[in-house]
Amino acid sequence: MSPFEVQLRRDLRLGWAGRGDMAVMLGFFLIILTLVPLAVGPDAAFLQPIAVPMIWIAAMLSSLAGFTRIFNEDVRCGWVDQVALSPLPLPLYVIAKAATHWVIGAVPMLLATPLMALMLYMDTSHLPALLLALVLGTAALTLLGVIGAALTEGARGGGGLMAVLVLPLAMPVLIFGALASAPADGGIVTPHLMLLGAVLAVLLAVAPFIAAAALSETESESGA
Amino acid sequence: MSATQPDNANKSPAHKSLARDAGAPPAGLRVDGVALVRGGRLVQNALSLAMVAGEVTLLRGPNGSGKSTLLRTIAGRLPAAAGAIECDVPVLYIGHADGLSPALTGRQNLADWAMLNGLANDDVAIDAALDRMQARPFADLPVRRLSHGQRRRVALARLTLGPSSALWLLDEPNSGLDAASSIALDDLISDHLEGGGMVLAATHLPLGITHSPRTLVLEDMA
Fold first, then answer.
1. B1 to chain A: closest CA residue
2. Predicted ipTM?
3. How far apart are CA A144 and CA A207, in angstroms?
4. Of A114, A103, A130, which is closest to residue A8 (Cα–Cα)?
5. Residue A78 DSSP code
6. A209 — contact with chain B (CB < 8 Å)?
7. Taking CA A60 as the corner, what is the angle to CA A54 and CA A63, rounded to the nearest 5 degrees?
8. Which end of chain A is more exposed for a tag (fewer CB within 10 A), N or C?
9. Helix crossing, A69-77 with A90-119: angle to 10°?
């Protein structure tokens, strides 16, 4: 088993052990979307046009709720120190972290999306396009979250700082994602989806290195 | 899963960034004119230290004199503000933090660490390592349920899994240990030195090791 696979397996185990945290993310997603009809009223004419945007905003906010946990425990308990001294390069460690965080955090959200779409009277013919865009979008958000989490690791009030840091950078994801989720002509692969894919590709190339650079000199708990 | 790349350990923990001249003769650890900065404040200046196989050095000095900072810097986790550090053996670092994820068991933590470094990680090897620190009885509990001293013992058990030539960087290794475990740690260190390893430890508590240590006193610069 390669060092990368060891880290990946470890993260899946940790994710499973901390599944309560991830359930909070899913719960947040469901609650935000449940609040919409309560606030706007259960009228399809009002809900249908905002269904896609609201699903995107809920996905963004609930993703944000989980980011602080990505590196927190590993830095505090000193595991990052051990990884830094091991043959596993830190960027690969970051990729393992991001991949498991996406699987455990975003996939349940994607699975709950069709139900939420029905509740908001979304045009179901757009569902495949929405899900595909959400797959790319949540992956891109996770990579932004990884950067934010690594940069704010050890900062006081890291959670709030991270929201201010990550949300502006997430705007292209939101814009292209929302546009790609409601294609006018019914085709799934739109230019917006391609642009969303381009954002994801750029993040895949740079995020592991930025996060690794930020983690290369973090302090463990009480490391005086 | 198996220890298929035992050699990995020799290139591994070593310093990607610190191995500046790989062609130099083996000299163990050389710290040359290093300056340490912590929290924007210079804590040590022009610090030099050389160690060869079989040697042990104890770091002493008041709180805040840079003992932990020096260990972290040698481990490559902090940059030296000036000077050079060369180390041509694998490094095992045990800092204040134990490097054990609280949600996993001690055994899982140890096995993952061994696998990550390409070291022996079968049950026999892990059990033997745990036994050296008498940590087997609680090795299958999640680390979060262990006491401070118990965690320390699991963390220290990691040392025996590493290569015999390794440099051990130990930050207050015996804090929180009971009498029996302190003796087990002393034996661990003595055996490692006997086998040609090196130990650099910051500690306020005396170590009862068989080899006579050199002492490096870090003065408070404040």
1. A1
2. 0.86
3. 7
4. A103
5. T
6. no
7. 135
8. N
9. 150
What's the token pair of residue B77? 């986790």
Bridge partners of B215, per DSSP, are B58
Instruction: From B195, B81, B100, select the one nearest B144 (Cα to Cα).
Output: B100
Q: Does A16 touch chain B (CB under 8 A)?
A: no
User: What region, left, alpha or beta, does residue B131 occupy, with left being phi > 0 and alpha being psi -120 to 50 degrees?
Assistant: alpha
Q: Return the closest-CA partner of residue B193 out of B49, B15, B28, B19.
A: B28
- Which of B78, B91, B116 lies at the smallest CB-CB distance from A3? B116
Return the SS3 of B42: strand
Tell me the residue type at A204: L
CB contact under 8 A, A3 and B115: yes
Name the residue among B83, B67, B99 with its Cα closest to residue B219. B67
| Cβ partners under 8 Å of residue A38, min gap 6 | none
Cα-Cα-Cα-Cα torsion A118, A122, A125, A128, nearest 10 degrees, comes to: -70
pLDDT in tens, chain B (222 residues): 343 443 433 333 444 333 334 444 555 899 998 998 887 888 888 888 989 888 899 998 888 888 999 999 999 888 888 888 988 899 999 998 999 999 999 999 999 999 999 998 888 999 999 999 999 999 999 999 999 999 999 999 999 999 989 999 999 998 889 999 999 999 999 999 998 899 999 987 777 777 788 888 888 775
